[in-house]
Amino acid sequence: MHEAFYKYYTGTTNQEVIQFIIDEYKKLSATVSLQDQESIDIQKYTALGMWEFYPHKRLDEFEECFPEMEFEVTVGKLRGVRLVGRFDGLVKKDGKWWIREVKTTGLGMSQLMGRMQTSNQATTYVYGARKLGIDVQGVMFDCIRRPLLRKRQSERCIDFGKRIITVYKDDEKVLGDRKLYKRHFEYRNPTQLKHFEEDTMSVAKDIRRRNRENDWNRNLDQCWNYNALCPYSRICHMETPDKLTLDLFYKTRERN
Question: What residue ranges do the domains of the chain occupy?
Answer without folding.
Answer: 2-199
